[in-house]
């Protein structure tokens, strides 16, 4: 099991602006910087920083910004990391919200625990080096690289109703974990054993096609409509944000059979409980495959109209079901909900900047709606041929449609309403949903 050995250094370190019109508004440019330091026994020492610049113009639109520039770089000594630049503008072209994102995300230890959630047995002891039946800390991992470039546009239809369109390219590379790389510099008692991982077994049993290990470029387009009556973007206290859209993803060459058409619907509601300082916020989201199929590493991707986070994965992890292992529930279609009580505890000014501290107890839930096709008889025969028992890896007796639950609470530190440092602690309600009793996530902004 991955062991996180140190904490992050968290600080909103810098803020700059050209002018201040009055104490409750901002003008010109402001920015915040957040450094972080961590150590992972498998991935090594992590170092990096992120920054978000906002332009408020003459302040008449505050707390809404006219331009946002977000940059993040994280790197580890074992070559895992995130390199991202995101641009968003409400003023570049009048009447249009334009956003673009370019990212590169090498991941030497990407989570993979099988298909269809509860149907995939998640034996946490196999990844825990303190247990007698330990196999490898990398047993539920694989190596994934992702390069992404995106442009999204939103325009007005009438009132709060908008049209949305976008295009992008996703370039994936998937392979087994590079055990030799991760073992360099490790003491003998910390080295990973070179054994078959779950990823290897899925390849041997035909659940993952060998062609999916090749580098694949997947251009896509999406389009739909959205409704936005929120009173502000970053942390609304009233209003609704809903969308419905389709995404067509193309594939070529040996991967040409992975063309797909998917449908997404999302509904988010923000309700002030007597005061804007106490808000009930909830999200309902669903994704369906209408036609075609996707490689296993794309089945874990959650399509969105506007890329606010580095990556949207489902289900499990910081962008969907907090506390549950990342990508725990991989399926062709799913539904999820997040419910939060957002409470602003303290509000204060420092220099010319406005701050608040908030907390957000929450409950998350998700379930499979369209399972990945797994032929029980074929799997049993394939597992037996490699000396394995299929029942150690699959629960064919239970329902694949059982929901997964988690819950927790977070702390938010916000500067000028938009630069929001988020620390969430969460735990799964079922022990087979995570190799840890709880997880901590350090991110920017609220989940939704």
What does this structure look like?
- There is one protein chain.
- The chain is mainly beta and 448 residues long.
- Helices cover 6% and strands 46% of the residues.
- It has a single domain, classed as Porin, CATH 2.40.160.
- The chain contains four helices and 17 strands.
- The chain has a 17-stranded antiparallel sheet that branches.
- Strand 6 and strand 7 form a beta hairpin.
- It is globular.
- The N terminus is likely disordered.
In a nutshell, what does this entry contain?
This protein is mainly beta and 448 residues long. It contains 4 helices and 17 strands. The longest helix is centred in the last third of the chain and has 10 residues, at 376-385.
Write the layout of secondary structure elements.
Blueprint: E1 29-40, E2 44-55, E3 67-76, E4 81-89, E5 96-111, E6 141-158, E7 161-175, H1 179-183, H2 198-204, E8 216-228, E9 239-249, E10 260-272, E11 278-292, H3 296-299, E12 333-350, E13 353-359, E14 362-370, H4 376-385, E15 404-415, E16 419-428, E17 439-444
Antiparallel strand pairs: 1-2, 2-3, 3-4, 4-5, 5-6, 6-7, 7-8, 8-9, 9-10, 10-11, 11-12, 12-13, 12-14, 13-15, 14-15, 15-16, 16-17
Flag low-confidence runs: 1-23
Kindly provide the name of the CATH class.
Answer: Mainly Beta
In one word, what is the shape?
globular
Nearest-integer average pLDDT: 90
């Amino acid at each position: 099991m991955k062991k996180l050995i140190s904490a992050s250094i968290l600080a909103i370190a810098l803020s700059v602006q050209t002018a201040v019109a009055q104490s409750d508004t901002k003008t010109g440019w402001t920015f915040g910087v957040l450094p972080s330091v961590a150590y992972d026994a498998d991935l090594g020492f992590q170092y990096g920083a992120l920054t978000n610049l906002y332009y408020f113009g003459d302040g008449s639109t505050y707390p809404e910004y006219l331009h946002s520039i977000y940059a993040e770089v994280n790197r580890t000594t074992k070559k895992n990391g995130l390199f991202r630049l995101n641009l968003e503008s409400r003023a570049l072209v009048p009447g249009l919200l334009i956003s673009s994102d370019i990212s590169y995300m090498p991941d030497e230890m990407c989570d993979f625990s099988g298909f269809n959630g509860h149907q995939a047995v998640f034996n946490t002891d196999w990844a825990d080096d303190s247990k007698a039946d330990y196999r490898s800390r990398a047993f539920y991992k694989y190596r994934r690289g992702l390069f992404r470039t995106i442009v999204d546009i939103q325009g007005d239809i009438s009132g709060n109703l908008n049209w949305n369109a976008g295009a992008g390219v996703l370039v994936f590379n998937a392979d087994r974990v590079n055990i030799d790389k991760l073992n360099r510099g490790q003491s003998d008692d910390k080295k990973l054993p070179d054994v078959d991982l779950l990823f290897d077994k899925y390849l041997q049993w035909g659940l993952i096609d060998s062609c999916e290990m090749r580098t694949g470029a997947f251009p896509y387009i999406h389009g739909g409509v959205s409704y936005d009556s929120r009173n502000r973007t970053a942390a609304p206290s009233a209003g609704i944000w809903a969308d419905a859209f389709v995404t067509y993803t193309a594939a070529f060459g040996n991967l040409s059979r992975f063309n797909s058409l998917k449908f997404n619907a999302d509904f988010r509601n923000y309700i002030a409980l007597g005061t804007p300082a106490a808000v009930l916020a909830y999200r309902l989201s669903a994704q369906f495959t209408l036609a075609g199929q996707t490689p296993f590493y794309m089945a874990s991707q959650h399509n969105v109209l506007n890329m606010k986070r580095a990556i949207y994965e489902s289900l499990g992890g910081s962008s969907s079901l907090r506390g549950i292992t990342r990508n725990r529930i991989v399926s062709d279609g799913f539904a999820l909900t997040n419910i939060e009580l957002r409470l602003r505890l303290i509000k204060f000014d420092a220099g010319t900047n406005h701050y608040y501290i908030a907390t957000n107890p929450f409950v998350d839930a998700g379930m499979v709606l369209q399972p990945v096709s797994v032929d029980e008889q074929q799997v049993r025969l394939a597992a037996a041929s490699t000396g394995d028992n299929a029942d150690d890896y699959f629960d064919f007796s239970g329902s694949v449609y059982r929901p997964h639950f988690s819950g927790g609470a977070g702390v938010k530190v916000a500067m000028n309403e938009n630069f929001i440092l988020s620390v969430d602690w969460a735990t799964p309600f079922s022990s087979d949903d995570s190799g840890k009793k709880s997880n901590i996530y350090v991110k920017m902004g609220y989940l939704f």
